[in-house]
Amino acid sequence: MSQFPSAEWLELYQSKENLLNAYSNFNEYFSEKELYNRPLHHINMGTVNFPTGEIIVCDPLTYLDIESEPYFTKVPQGVFPVDTVVVEVEEDHFRYAATRIKFSDKKAVKHIEALLGYEDLTELGEDEYFGFTVESGLATIVDVATRDQFCDFVNRWDYENDEDKNLYDDFFAAEFKRSFEKHPQFQREGGDWINMKIPNTDADLPMIQTGFGDGTYPVYFGYDENNEVCEIVMQYIDLELAFG
């Protein structure tokens, strides 16, 4: 269910907006070929379908369940491209730095952290963020309708398989391997990303390795000159902090 922030929370949110602004320049992330003396590469990971516009970003293997909640800000409904920027940490050693979903061709003039609508903003400080927690080294971005279809799939899979089987080892590992075989550039042999249809559905399920593995990562909505949401960015590596 969508969150409906209280008037008091929204007032505090608006007063704290300067602390929720992204420090990084994501327009550079997705347009430049090099930043901070590190080569950047760009992967088109296909598309993702947002039928309701209520969006969830989380670790898909740990936190994508029926209780996972969308951000209070809705995005346009439709099918949109998934693009990831890769930083070459050293020769032939690559890390995924950020993933962007563009909703329009408008340029973002600011990026503000995506929130659920009930975070404690009272003591938010400079250079702090809420983010999403990763425990399996993976991130996903899905619509709430996709969340429901994923949960149905997991329940069916669990029911059809014995207790000794593991969802990643016995299902998703093969999907990651196929992704590597089809798109080997910027992936390790076992695969670093997938974008698949949930079985027996039309729901898109991207899963992407997070820059340095487990941790907490911020997500930002990009707003255009008309203050409309034009993109969402999942940041795995702060390039300036890491390499600047």
TrEMBL record:
Top-rank lineage group of the source organism: Bacteria
Organism: Moheibacter stercoris
Entries under InterPro entries matching the protein: DUF4241
Protein name from the UniProt record: DUF4241 domain-containing protein
